[in-house]
């Protein structure tokens, strides 16, 4: 079985595949000082919930945008899983040309999403990821990564609002029934949810105008259903896009077992 790990700045998502079939997916907080032993305990506990034996894992692929955790994840694989990990980064075979001025600047998560979206739909598309940052990535008809845009993530913007405005408070990130709210909690929710939906549609419209075409729009990320439901231009929601992208990249780069 294959373990896929997507380490973001806010959350880490772990998934296990049996071939192409997902058998478990879990989202935990990203802790920059977590040790290999702590990751092992978490993995054992999560896997036991799904009836998965960690020792049956014979492949691991990692997308990590938090450099301090790379060492802990390498130790997890060597000490506890006895499987050589494959990290998404420079040198990995993606099967997708990167038309960026400096390809090394493109985040691993953005490439993983692009590969997964194009593998499934096989057409020009824009992948939108509602993560710590909200990213927009354009892949052309030939399957080439052309670039995109990065905006602050929904939670980052909300947290900045709460920290800088002393009379405002944290609220559940869900859409209120009306944009014109009658109480402060609903007003905050309105501004964040409808505001970000408008941001997404606005950037997508600008991209469409620049391209002179209307690519398919595929969305993923932790808050995808909250925001996407309020947009007009998102065509597909793929909550497991990153997990599937990691699986695809592992197959394309399957390493030989070395320890």
Topology:
Elements: E1 2-7, E2 11-18, E3 21-29, H1 36-49, E4 59-64, H2 70-81, E5 85-87, H3 108-121, E6 125-130, E7 133-139, E8 145-152, H4 154-164, H5 184-211, E9 216-221, H6 224-228, E10 236-237, H7 241-252
Parallel strand pairs: 1-4, 4-5, 6-9, 9-10
Antiparallel strand pairs: 1-2, 2-3, 6-7, 7-8
Helix pairs in contact: 1-2, 3-7
Comma- or semicolon-separated keywords:
five-stranded mixed β-sheet; globular; alpha/beta; 259 residues; 10 strands
Architecture overview:
The chain is an alpha/beta fold and 259 residues long. It is 37% helix and 24% strand. The chain has seven helices and ten strands. The strands form two sheets. It has a five-stranded mixed sheet, sandwiched between helices. The longest helix has 28 residues, at 184-211. The chain starts with a strand and ends in a 7-residue tail after the last helix. The model has no long low-confidence stretch (mean pLDDT 92).
Quick synopsis:
This protein has 259 residues and is an alpha/beta fold. Helix content is 37%, strand content 24%. The mean pLDDT is 92.
Helix proportion: 25-40%
Distance between the termini: 17 Å
Helical/strand content category: alpha/beta
Neighbour order of strands in the largest sheet: 3-2-1-4-5
SSE string: EEEHEHEHEEEHHEHEH
- Total helices: the number is 7
The total strand number stands at: 10
Query: Could you list the spans in which at least 5 consecutive residues all have pLDDT below 50?
Result: none
Radius of gyration: 19 Å
